[in-house]
Design brief:
- The chain is of the alpha+beta class and 164 residues long.
- It has one domain (2-162).
- Helix content is 31%, strand content 16%.
- The protein contains five helices and six strands, in the order E-H-E-H-H-H-E-E-E-E-H.
- The strands form two sheets. It has a four-stranded mixed sheet, with no helix packed on it.
- A hairpin with a 2-residue loop joins strand 3 (99-102) and strand 4 (105-108).
- The radius of gyration is 17 Å and the shape is globular.
- It starts with a strand and ends with a helix.
- 23% of the residues are buried.
Length: 164
């Protein structure tokens, strides 16, 4: 297996630069457009993001960090509405005690403030044939290997076989 915790392959500009060279690489990600990750609101969010990203000098697809930035604000907004104010202590208590519906699915925090369940995905790039952005804008080219509940595809190995 080749890959691991590399920062970079999550961004559209590097994906299009590397194209088929990514085949077989396993890396972490936070969101990819696979059917197992189609949460309510994510398609509308990404459509708006991608329209605004054109010509703005930001990641063209916005799969890596933007969905979570938006989800964090959804959580804060829900907590402010529920507590009917801006009291930080009340908001913090509400966030620690509740589950939130967001564009990245249901989110709950553990008593220590971290996510109750890790949302880090392990994905393998597969079947990439060109450097065109369309290769990365839809499902089928990043197999979600882990966690099991969002699995979409299986690992291809050995690397010699996977990189084809």
């Amino acid at each position: 297996m080749f890959g691991g915790g590399m920062v970079g392959p999550q961004y559209a500009s590097l994906q299009t630069a590397l194209g088929p060279l990514l085949n077989g690489i396993v890396n972490y990600h936070f969101f990819v457009p696979e059917p197992s990750l189609k949460f309510p609101g994510i398609d509308a969010f990404l459509k708006t993001y991608q329209e605004r990203a054109k010509g703005a000098g930001v990641d063209a697809l916005g799969y890596y960090l933007p969905p979570y930035a938006y989800a964090y604000l959804q959580i804060l907004g829900q907590a402010v509405e529920a507590t009917k104010g801006l009291d930080q202590k009340k908001i913090g208590e509400y966030i620690r005690a509740n589950t939130f519906d967001t564009v990245v699915g249901k989110v709950k925090f553990a008593p220590n403030g971290e996510w109750a369940q890790s949302r880090v995905l392990m994905v393998q790039f597969q079947g990439i044939e060109s450097n065109d952005l369309s290769q990365f804008s839809g499902p089928g080219h990043r197999a979600v290997l882990y966690p099991e509940q969002w699995k979409a595809g299986s690992i291809v190995y050995p690397y010699e076989k996977a990189k084809r």
